[in-house]
Amino acid sequence: MTAAVAALALALVNPASAAAPAPSEQVAASVGPVQLYIGGLGSGPYNVAVQSAVGTAMDNAVSKGFDPARCNLVKGPTVVNQLPNGYVQVAVEYLCAGDPYVPGPTFVLNRYHKSSDTQSNSWYHPNGYQLQGPLGSLYTYAAAGTTPLYLCQVRGDHFTSTDVACEGQQYVTRLGWLYTTQPAGVATVPLFRCLRNENRQIFDSIQSNCEGQIHGGPLGYTLA
Predict the structure, then answer these.
(1) Residues of 198-208 as b/e, b for ≥16 C-beta within 10 angstroms?
(2) Do 119 and 112 touch, CB atoms closer than 8 A?
């Protein structure tokens, strides 16, 4: 990693929540959308394959709680395979944004890892990543005393933030809501931002010592 990237990672190690706004300011602040890339695959003669791929993508969007009208085509139709019978396989990808319907009040925030990145995600298991374990649960709605948690990215390294502007970096999606301070009468675990010593990779942990790595400060409290 270059010196510039390392410096940027160190700048990000102190999460925006360290100077969290007052609750009234949080209510007034804009809330970023859930944004998910949703794909579809179809096969057959080209036109049929395209229709099938689009239909599959729309079904996948609905399964994630999105109104298909909130989804925009961002990639494809792309022929990804020539079948022996002369037919083709076609792929499409849509970006769905907004507030999808979520059946439950909470969902689990999991941590995933691959050699070049660690990310926390409540929506899906990222391709190519291994599940490392849960980091508690997030509310699917804005409960009293909570603030949104966002997934952000800087030069391929994912990190979470309570800043809708992702601290000047690339916005990925909204993950859910977590408590800004430890609430009374609710079982919670603290969520910390951490930084790996060897490669300055940002990651989240529920261990106060950041698993022996560099401590970046608290992000908030997830549900135990």
Answers:
(1) eebbbbbbbee
(2) yes
Q: What global pTM score does this model have?
A: 0.85
DSSP 8-state symbol, 60:
H
Residue-wise pLDDT for 45-76, tens only, equals: 999 999 999 999 999 999 999 999 999 999 99
Sole residue written with tokens 């948690």: 149
Give me the domain span that covers residue 144.
102-223
The pair of structure tokens assigned to 74 is 């961002």
More confident position, 46 or 3:
46
Q: Is residue 73 part of a domain?
A: yes
Asked if 79 and 162 sit in the same domain, the reply is: no
With a CB cutoff of 8 Å and minimum separation 6, the contacts of 206 are: 135, 136, 189, 190, 191, 192, 222
Q: Please report whether residue 210 resides in a domain.
A: yes
The confidence score (pLDDT) of residue 21 equals 38
**Do 214 and 157 lie in a common domain?**
yes
Which burial class, exposed, middle or buried, applies to 183 when counting CB atoms under 10 A from its CB (0-12, 13-18, 19+)?
middle
Query: Is residue 30 one of the residues assigned to a domain?
Result: no
Domain annotation covers residue 13? no
- For the cut 70, the answer to whether the pLDDT of residue 43 exceeds it is yes
